[in-house]
Amino acid sequence: MTIFKIRYPSDSYCVMGYLSLPAEYEWNEMRLEHHLLQALPEKDRPCLKVNKVAENFPKRFQLKADHMLADFFPAIVYCRGGIGRVGQVRLEWMHDFSQLGFVVFAPCYRGSEESDGNDEFGGAETMDVSVAISMLQSLPFVQKNRISLLGFSRGSINAAQAAYFNPSIHKLILWGGISHLANIYEERIDLRRMLKRVVGGTPKRYPERYASRSPEIIVTKLNSPILLVHGTNDQQVDFSHAIRMEKVLREKGKNPVTHFYYGLGHHMPRPIHEAAVNRMCDWLCQK
């Protein structure tokens, strides 16, 4: 299995992301770059660059072969948590998903890892996610009707927004996700300065900006199946966010699936994390 780092165009910016392929379908960087170039308008082609960054990970999972369709694979767009250097893309997560038979794309978001622009924490950088979906759709080995979104922590904002802007999305997973950003502002004193900087002010001054970055408001407009994954002892995004999200969805007549992990936090011990990933991927592969 190989992971590539890709520089790609999003709006007027060149941004970075990672792509991992199951070992059963390997392309080298030259072939991948050539294919992606053909899918771009000529004016955007100078931005594109593909480099191999990792391969030969230890094998932890068995491929879910019964979930493949001949040589076509389902895909996940993994929206990372954090901002800037905090909470960067976890390559080991991508490796885990690809070992289970998924093509995975993880945007870094503009402003991170040599990407142009600025991360607005649920603002214009969500376009980077939408472009990633389009790139996956252009790959001949991806099942275009089975591209799902996974938002971890703050990535739940971008994943929910991207699901709204891309209604063909198969399923949506919010793992350790935020329900309303204004609640994070109140709960996480350590994040207030950052939120005021990237959002432009406080929830009291700009309630509409915080609302537009709040998955609990966005997901009620979606038709995709939704999975909520959360540890009950999460200190970064309190478990109350998952409870609130579930309540809002059920009040709107939707039936989210919940995978709650009692006594566990934002990050789980490796054996439990692997079990949670297996369980999540089983849900993704259900029809």
Task: Lay out the secondary structure.
Layout: E1 2-10, E2 13-21, H1 29-38, E3 49-55, E4 73-79, H2 91-99, E5 103-107, H3 126-138, E6 142-152, H4 155-165, E7 172-175, H5 181-187, H6 192-199, H7 207-212, H8 215-218, E8 226-231, H9 240-251, E9 257-261, H10 270-285
Parallel strand pairs: 4-5, 4-6, 6-7, 7-8, 8-9
Antiparallel strand pairs: 1-2, 1-3, 2-5
Helix pairs in contact: 3-4
Protein name: Prolyl oligopeptidase family protein
GO molecular function, one term: carboxylic ester hydrolase activity
Organism: Alicyclobacillus tolerans
Walk me through the structure.
This protein has 10 helices and 9 strands. It has helices at residues 29-38, 91-99, 126-138, 155-165, 181-187, 192-199, 207-212, 215-218, 240-251, 270-285; strands at 2-10, 13-21, 49-55, 73-79, 103-107, 142-152, 172-175, 226-231, 257-261. The chain has 287 residues and is of the alpha/beta class. Helix 3 (126-138) crosses helix 4 (155-165). The mean pLDDT is 94. Keywords: Hydrolase. One of its GO terms (biological process) is proteolysis. This is Prolyl oligopeptidase family protein.
Task: Provide keyphrases for this structure.
alpha/beta; 287 residues; globular; 9 strands; nine-stranded mixed β-sheet
CATH architecture: 3-Layer(aba) Sandwich
Helix content: 25-40%
What's the CATH H-level superfamily name? Alpha/Beta hydrolase fold, catalytic domain
Q: What are the low-pLDDT stretches, counting only 5+ consecutive residues below 50?
A: none
Could you state the oligomeric state of the chains shown?
single chain
What is the 3D form? globular
**Can you write the helix and strand succession as a string?**
EEHEEHEHEHEHHHHEHEH
Main sheet: which strands, in order across? 3-1-2-5-4-6-7-8-9
Our estimate of the beta-strand percent is 15-25%
Radius of gyration: 18 Å
Q: How many domains make up the 3D coordinates?
A: 1
CATH class equals Alpha Beta
Biggest sheet, in brief? Answer: 9 strands, mixed
CATH-derived topology: Rossmann fold
According to DSSP, the number of beta strands is 9
Indicate the structural class.
alpha/beta
Pfam family, one: Peptidase_S9
InterPro entries: AB_hydrolase_fold, FrsA_esterase, Peptidase_S9_cat
Keywords: Hydrolase
GO molecular function: carboxylic ester hydrolase activity; serine-type peptidase activity
